[in-house]
Design brief:
The complex is a heterodimer of chains A (about 1050) and B (about 475).
Chain A lengths: L1 H9 L1 H4 L7 E7 H11 L4 E3 L2 H4 L3 E7 L5 H11 L2 E6 L2 E6 L10 E8 L10 E3 L6 E3 L5 E6 L4 E6 L6 E5 L3 E7 L10 E2 L7 E2 L8 E4 H6 L5 H5 L7 E4 L8 E4 L13 E4 L2 E2 L29 E7 L16 E6 L6 E14 L10 H5 L3 E13 L5 E11 L10 E15 L2 E15 L11 H6 L19 H16 L2 E20 L2 E20 L1 H8 L8 E24 L2 E24 L13 E24 L3 E11 L10 E11 L11 E15 L9 E7 L2 E6 L10 E14 L4 E19 L11 E23 L3 E11 L1 E6 L6 E5 L5 E5 L7 E9 L5 E11 L5 E11 L2 E11 L2 E4 H8 L9 H7 L12 E3 L2 E13 L9 E15 L24 E2 L7 E10 L1
Parallel strand pairs in A: 2-5, 6-12, 18-21, 48-52
Antiparallel strand pairs in A: 1-3, 4-5, 6-9, 7-8, 7-10, 10-11, 13-14, 15-20, 16-17, 18-19, 20-21, 22-23, 22-53, 23-24, 24-25, 25-26, 26-27, 27-28, 28-29, 29-30, 30-31, 31-32, 32-33, 33-34, 34-37, 35-36, 37-38, 38-39, 39-40, 39-41, 40-46, 42-43, 43-44, 44-45, 46-47, 47-50, 48-49, 50-51, 51-53
Chain B lengths: L1 H15 L7 E2 H6 L3 H27 L3 E3 L18 H27 L5 H21 L2 E3 L6 E3 H18 L3 H18 L2 H11 L6 E4 L10 H8 L5 E3 L23 E5 H14 L3 H17 L2 E4 L21 E2 L19 E4 L8 H6 L3 H15 L6 H5 L7 H6 L25 E3 L5 E3 L3 H7 L11
Helix pairs in contact in B: 3-4, 3-5, 4-5, 5-6, 5-7, 6-7, 7-8, 7-10, 8-10, 10-11, 10-13, 11-13, 13-16
Classes of the chains: A mainly beta (about 1050), B mainly alpha (about 475).
Keywords (chain A): Cell outer membrane, Membrane, Receptor, Signal, TonB box, Transmembrane, Transmembrane beta strand, Transport
GO molecular function (chain A): siderophore uptake transmembrane transporter activity
Protein name (chain A): Outer membrane receptor proteins, mostly Fe transport
């Protein structure tokens, strides 16, 4: 019922359908007329140089609403010196010169191409300070006349960097290649706004990454691809196994109960980001799995990313960690375009961090990688756009017996159509198949590859081996190798994901300044996890014959998310003021159903549980429903000062009985100082200040408020016992962010600097308070009792030190500082979010410390290196870095480009639990004084955890690549060819002896729980890949 | 057309806009009939869960077993008992969960369900009483209720007696009544009340082979953890003190362990004889003590013994690799005589498994035991052997767990005095209770005979309550 009210609220907007009369302009400036035409066709991108039309006056033009844009422009052509070209939704206008140009001497002709050698339609090519200029035609052609050489010509196109080129003689075929602008404040964004808004109107940053940038980095999954691309966010791949989770965090860790992964939208539809826990069957071995690993990647037009804070307020109750929105392609250039791409190469294990040299020989090998992709797109004259992509990827992985194999297939279609003059329709359908193997990892007891080899556990596994691998004789090593080979060969565990996502968008423009947008869609993700443990495997790894303990465990997780959103955006201009009002309602419902079915005492060879002597099953169901209404007003003054105000109200059945609607307000200011008339561009050519305040939240899980009774079977009867204590006052935790920043462009935007400071305070932070044992409950209950603070600087820059006709060099870098602290724990006892027992090693939430700091025993040694005393539960370091950022470099020479990017962090620590076990099992003496071993042996191994905590500073080069574009000089069967060579994860520099990123992301509260990593424990590093690709555009 | 579209959107949204909790809330549970029967089964399940936590941790903390693997507590063997230890928290939580469940059953479930019977109520009082016995025997003190005031172990044991009286008054099954009397005897013994202990033990012996066992359900995730630790899991996790080798495993499975989970005794007639013998010895009455011990040995001899293939046992947990695997002699401390037959060669054929009680003590040992102390030594050896794997040894050693850190952090009523474990001064540290050495000929010498230590310290407040 409540949701109905919300929608009724927005219905009057349908009724506002004022009648527009045709307008006859007597004598008006051409520029003014063009503004009127623009305002009436807002979905059309008009490209022209206003300077060219400034001096033109037009008489006798009548704008007629009933005519389409083409007819109105035809009428304009008759009375004004203007011509136009239409391509898709872009119209390029140019001035026709009426004077004869025959006497002009110089001629400059050529093409403007984008970074993929695709002709650019509608780019302005002109000679600054003169009226000489041209707009490129559909094939990117331009032609300029000049009466003097040398001359500097300037080329501009929205979303691309302005290029200035000095020409000293006639040119018949001068090719100008545009480079995408790092960030254009005129760019239109959607995320966080409900509808289209230009970036400069926003008081917060929106990072946009376009398809070309994404395509440069071949990768298997979206988080890997983005890992060095978001200047103010950190993406750490916490495990090298296919499908392993990553830790994504931007403005620190604002929650101690849910992980910092942003929510993800695809064309306005919420995707499963696996923030619901895996309730059954564990988390697929020690390493959790990620729903990010199967987000479709082949049909992306652009990605928008907003950090948490004021930017995400309109996403309401679960957007405190930021929002990633993916937009898929729904059209292409006119006609039909075909692209074929093949990518192939090899993968090598990242062995940099292995302790024993011979671990590599035991567990790893070099693998093969291949990927094929087909894309067909196009657009008809009537504006119907389509895009189809299909791709197949096969990675054999770097572990022996294909234990890290991954196969992935994507199929996607996107359509865009104009149903009527004022109704547009966009649609996308995406299917992803992802299959990967998962051998045992972490320490699951018994044999586990890395734990066996690297942690010294080989001495207690199977028949027991000498665990100092590098000291073994050839014969001894052959024996251990045979054991490992057999143990790996006999494992057969895999995960299969089938995912279907669709988005349907209708845009309806009842009057010319009102846009209604309806978005509806679903994300359905089915994940099957299959673990087969044969008697042969058990016998081989346990050193004795086992005949009746073979088992198969299947866990299926079905996720269905439904998103419905209705937005109305109204634009209005009065005098110097422009107002964009947005009102909308969003509804989402997710259903997570998990089913476990297992069989034990099953004969080897059986693939289903139907042959098992004992069969068992279980089920878990979680449904979330959230509905909210938002209202936003963006007020602009003279295109330089913008005030952004908004509020969202949310309701959710998971909130406690005493909690009603939750409100999330925001306010912000953006001031384009460089748009002031008194601002004289010089070295400094663009300057903006921005500041904002906003609240976003994190939802508690469904039903977490209710007091429940749990049941299980016991000896054939129904057993009831305490479930969850319940909390009638449960509500979302809310993060209030205050931020301020400055965006500066120097030297014709060749140096862009963006700097900001934020402070985010999470109030009513949700803590899983460990229950007092006297209460009889074993389940921790969520209470809104904490307060977590994050603050820091966010600085990013793009510098283009070299830019000539043939050579361009650009460098981008970002630096983010971060301070995180639990300022108030509400009197709750400290609790762990990761790790083991409170007596050994944990990452902990405790007042006065950063979230997830390492807590363990601190041992003090005497002069002889013998342990003197140990202090339990000591602070051993923060797992959250103080500084992190990304670096990137792009260099191009004519058709050749080189690129590289990297990520770094400093100021964080992690515990080397591998080394601690290695010490315990006698495989190493690393980190421990000799005196201690002589006197006490290894029995104090748990009392000296501080010795095993290491700093995790790193610089990781994520990508080094090279590409070469080739366009045929004459007509050929293809339009362009692109060759590429890329190395992924080629170089790692780290202060720790273990991989500072591979620090188990699993959380104590299970999948989706808060995690900061921080413990190195039998986890694989991401492998290296060396790939070559060829792409043909037809 | 436009209106129709709007209505259509409404209908779609309304159809999606309800979620119901798929789980059972407290209100729904209590409002529906026959809640008591499921709560009684829930209590039986909790008895099994609590027994698992107590059994494994007591085995490791005491001299009975050494944790030879990386799972379970790595410090209780030392013994190192910290109030922040997760296993201390689990022990308190599982003991108090049984109490809270029993209280909830009596206060809420029984009152809400018209079908509740006197037996149901008696069972809940019994569970409450047993929870209080565990609390009184294993902890220095515990809160009386959720976040309640602290009670000393003596106060908790006194509560247990009252709970058991309530159970007896409601119970109709005579067998169960004997069990409750035996548990009362146990509580009185721990309180040092000889008169009442003797009286209750004698009443319970009206069923001379009394046996009340806790059952497990491997298919529903409540397996017998002690069985897993000593038999099912590979490698075997717990290794017995070599002189107790012949009593290991007490629990075993034939075929998949999931469907073969052996029960654990909660109360058995042997205990009544042992209480009586100890009581008579406290009165210097060695004759009557000998008499009941002889009856006890006859009962033990009547308990079932099965032959089991335990050739998979290789004591290969990994922390200690010198556990004897062949039949070698063992002595109980560095000066005692070597004894044969206590350490088994499990590769030489099936071994005898004492599923209820077994002992190395013979009628002759009883007959030849001299004064009070020698008989008292036999009583404590018998207690150790007969109760092995039943979570009883720690009380005989005088060790008590502290209240957990999580309790103290949540509960302002917990003074610091309760967060320190009770470890009598005579308990050797550094693994001294589990340590042994191997002679060149393979024979084994245990470092410390804890039963000897107990008798030597019989007047200490922590042990031998009748003295």
């Amino acid at each position: 019922m409540k949701i109905c009210c919300i929608l009724i609220f927005s219905t009057p907007l349908f009724a506002v359908n004022s009648h527009l009369t045709d307008t006859l302009y007597g004598t008006r400036k051409l520029g003014v007329i063009l503004e009127v035409i623009k305002a009436n066709y807002r979905d059309i991108n008009f490209v022209y140089d206003p300077e060219k039309f400034r001096d033109v006056t037009v008489t006798g033009f009548r704008f007629e609403k009933d005519l389409n844009v083409r007819q109105n422009l035809d009428n304009l052509e008759e009375v004004a010196p203007v011509s136009y070209l239409i391509e898709g939704s872009t119209i390029a206008l140019r001035r026709i010169h009426t004077v004869s140009e025959d006497f002009q001497q110089g001629l400059i002709k050529g093409k403007v191409l984008d970074e993929n050698d695709v002709p650019v339609f509608g780019a302005s090519v002109f000679i600054p300070g003169t009226d000489k200029g041209s707009v490129t035609d559909i094939d990117g052609n331009y032609e300029l006349h000049t009466d003097v050489f040398p001359v500097e010509i300037q080329v501009s196109y929205l979303g691309y960097k302005i290029q200035k080129i000095r020409v000293s003689e006639d040119r018949e075929n001068m090719v100008i290649r545009l480079e995408p602008a790092f960030e254009s404040l005129n760019e239109v964004v959607v995320t966080g706004q409900g509808a289209d808004v230009r970036k400069k109107r926003l008081s917060t940053r929106v990072t946009t990454i376009n398809a070309e940038e994404l395509e440069k980095i071949p990768s298997q999954r979206i988080d890997q691809q983005l890992s060095a691309k978001l200047p103010n966010a950190q993406i750490n791949l916490t495990g090298g196994q296919a499908g392993a989770t990553s830790i994504i965090r931007a403005r620190g860790v604002n929650s101690a109960f849910v992980n910092s992964t942003p929510i993800i939208y695809l064309d306005g539809v919420r995707l499963d980001n696996l923030n619901t826990r895996s309730a059954l069957g564990g988390s697929s071995q020690g390493s959790s799995m990620s729903a990010l690993a199967d987000i479709p990647m082949d049909n992306i037009e652009k990605i928008e990313y907003i950090n948490g804070g004021a930017a995400t307020t309109l996403y309401g109750s679960d957007a405190a960690n930021g929002v990633i929105q993916i937009f898929t392609k729904k059209g292409g250039r006119p006609g039909t375009n075909l692209t074929l791409q093949a990518e192939s190469g090899f993968e090598t294990p990242t062995t940099d961090f292995l302790y024993f040299n011979r671990t590599k020989d035991l567990l790893f090998r070099t693998g093969a990688y291949q990927k094929y992709r087909l894309n067909v797109n196009g657009e008809s004259e009537s504006g119907f756009g389509y895009n189809f992509s299909g791709s197949f990827l096969n990675s054999s992985g770097v572990q022996i017996h294909d234990q890290n194999e991954n196969q992935k297939a994507d199929f996607s279609t996107g359509f865009r159509a104009r149903l009527a003059d004022n109704i547009d329709y966009e649609s996308s359908f995406i299917y992803v198949y992802n299959r990967y193997k998962r051998n045992r990892n972490g320490n699951q007891g018994g044999y586990t590859g890395l734990w066996f080899a690297e942690d010294g556990a080989s001495s207690i596994t199977g028949p027991g081996f000498n665990n100092r691998l590098d000291e073994l004789s050839g014969e001894e090593f052959a024996a251990i190798r045979e054991f490992v080979d057999n143990a790996e060969k006999l494992q057969d565990n895999h995960i299969v994901v089938n995912r279907f996502t669709t988005s349907q968008i209708f845009k309806y423009r009842p009057v010319d300044n009102l846009l209604l947008k309806f978005t509806g869609g679903i994300d359905f993700r089915m994940q099957d996890q299959n673990t087969v443990q044969t008697n042969a495997y058990l016998s081989a790894t346990r050193g004795q014959e086992i005949t009746d303990q073979g088992s198969i465990q299947n866990v299926q997780r079905n996720y269905l998310g439904v998103t419905l959103e209705l937005t109305a955006q109204h634009t209005y201009e009065i005098g110097d003021f422009s107002l964009i009002s947005t009102v909308g309602g969003q509804f989402f419902r997710t259903r997570d159903r998990q089913i476990l079915y297992s069989g034990s005492n099953i004969r080897d060879g059986a693939q289903t549980i139907s042959d098992a002597a004992i069969k068992d099953s279980d089920e878990y169901l979680n449904e979330v429903l959230n509905y909210g209404v938002y209202l936003q007003e963006n007020i602009g003054y003279a295109d330089k000062l913008f005030l952004d105000l908004g509020i969202r109200g949310d309701r959710n059945p998971a909130f406690g009985d005493n909690i009603g609607t939750q409100f999330y307000p925001k306010a912000g200011l953006s001031y384009m100082i460089s748009s002031e008339p008194w601002f004289k561009p010089g070295v400094l050519n663009s300057l903006r200040f921005r500041t904002s305040y906003g609240i976003a939240g994190n939802l508690p899980p469904a039903y977490a408020n209710e007091k429940t009774i749990s049941f299980d079977g016991f000896k054939g009867a129904q057993a009831a016992f305490f479930g969850q204590p319940g909390n009638d006052n449960l509500k979302p935790e809310k993060t209030t962010t205050i931020e301020a920043g400055i965006d500066i462009g120097f030297w014709n935007n060749r140096i862009n600097v963006s700097a900001g400071y934020y402070r985010a305070l999470t109030r009513d932070a949700l803590f899983y308070v460990p229950p007092a044992p006297s209460g009889g409950y074993r389940v921790s209950q969520l209470y809104n009792i904490g307060e977590i603070e994050n603050y820091g600087l966010e600085i990013s820059t793009v510098i283009v030190p070299v830019q000539t006709q043939d050579i361009t060099l650009s460098i981008n870098a970002s630096l983010n500082t971060l301070h995180n602290e639990v300022v108030d724990a509400g009197g709750a006892p400290a609790f762990n979010i990761n790790g083991f027992s409170s007596r050994t090693l944990q990452t902990v939430v405790q007042e006065g410390y950063p979230v997830g700091f390492i807590r363990g025993n601190y041992g003090v040694f005497d002069d002889n290196g013998v342990l003197e005393q140990t202090t339990p539960q000591s602070y051993l370091g923060s797992t959250i870095p103080e500084v992190f950022g990304n670096l990137g470099l792009n260099f191009s020479y004519k058709n050749l480009s080189l690129f590289s990017n990297a990520s770094y962090q400093t100021g964080a620590y992690a515990a080397n639990w591998d080394a601690q076990f290695r010490y315990y099992y006698g495989a190493s003496e690393q980190f421990v004084p000799e005196g201690e071993i002589e006197v006490n042996g290894r029995r104090n191994w748990l009392n000296i955890t501080n010795r095993f905590v290491e700093k995790t500073d790193f610089l990781k080069i994520r990508t080094i690549g090279m590409s070469y574009y080739l366009t045929p000089r004459e007509k050929a069967f293809y339009k362009s060819l692109t060759f590429g060579i890329t190395a992924l994860n080629p170089l790692n520099f780290a202060s720790s002896t273990f991989d500072p990123e591979a620090t188990i992301s699993g959380a104590a509260q299970g999948q989706g729980g808060a995690s900061t990593g921080g413990i190195s424990y039998a986890t694989y590093s991401a492998p290296r890949q060396f790939l070559a690709s060829v792409k043909i555009n037809f | 057309m436009r209106k129709k579209s709007i209505y259509l959107v409404f209908i779609i949204i309304c159809a999606f806009s309800c979620v119901e909790n798929p789980n059972v809330t407290e209100d729904v549970y209590l409002e529906n009939p026959h809640s008591v029967s499921s709560w009684v089964v829930g209590l039986k399940r909790q008895l099994a869960v609590t027994t698992n936590t107590v059994n494994v941790n007591v085995a490791i903390t005491s001299d009975n077993y050494f944790n030879n693997y990386s799972q379970y507590s790595k410090v209780f063997d030392i013994p190192q008992i910290d109030y922040f230890d997760v296993d201390v928290n689990s022990l308190q939580a599982d003991v108090q969960a049984l109490r809270e469940m029993a209280v909830y059953g009596l206060d809420k479930v029984i009152t809400a369900d018209a079908s509740a019977t006197a037996e149901d109520e008696a069972f809940m009082h019994f569970c409450l009483g047993y929870a209080n016995i565990l609390g009184g025997e294993l902890f220095t003190g515990l809160p009386e209720a959720n976040l309640g005031k602290m009670l000393t172990s003596g106060e908790i044991l006194t509560l247990a007696v009252g709970n058991l009286d309530a159970a007896i008054s409601l119970e109709t099954d005579p067998k169960n009544i004997q069990v409750y009397h035996l548990l009362k005897a146990r509580a009185y013994r721990s309180l040092g009340d000889v008169t009442h202990a003797v009286r209750e033990a004698e009443i319970s012996l009206s069923d001379p082979s009394l046996l009340y066992q806790i059952e497990f359900d491997g298919q529903n995730g409540v397996r017998n953890e002690m069985q897993n630790a000593v038999f099912d899991a590979l490698p075997n996790r717990l290794a017995p003190l070599p002189r107790l080798d012949f009593l290991d495993p007490k629990y075993y499975a034939v075929g998949p362990p999931t469907t073969d989970q052996k029960p654990v005794a909660l109360a058995k007639a042997e205990e009544a004889y042992l209480i009586l013998a100890e009581a008579y010895l406290s009165e210097q009455n060695t004759g009557k003590a000998r008499e009941v011990l002889q009856k006890l040995l006859i009962l033990v001899g009547e308990r079932p013994v099965v032959r089991v293939d335990d050739s998979g046992e290789t004591r290969n947990g990994g922390n200690r690799t010198d556990y004897p695997l062949t039949a070698v002699p063992v002595r109980f401390d560095s000066t005692g005589p070597f004894r044969e037959g206590l350490i088994l060669d499990r590769q030489a054929g099936n071994i005898a498994v004492h599923t209820v009680s077994g002992t190395s003590v013979t009628l002759s040992d009883i007959a030849h035991a001299g004064g009070v102390d020698e008989l008292l030594y036999q009583v404590y050896l018998l207690r150790q052997e007969i109760f092995i794997g039943e979570g009883r040894r720690l009380t005989d050693l005088g060790i008590k767990y502290p209240v957990s850190q999580t309790e103290q952090d949540n509960n302002p009523n917990v003074p610091d005095a309760y967060i320190i474990a009770q470890l009598p001064a005579f308990i050797p540290g550094n693994g001294g209770m589990d340590n042994f050495s191997t002679e060149p000929d393979g024979s084994i010498a245990i470092e410390t005979d804890m039963n000897r230590i107990i008798v030597q310290n019989k007047t200490a407040s922590e042990v031998v309550p009748f003295f």
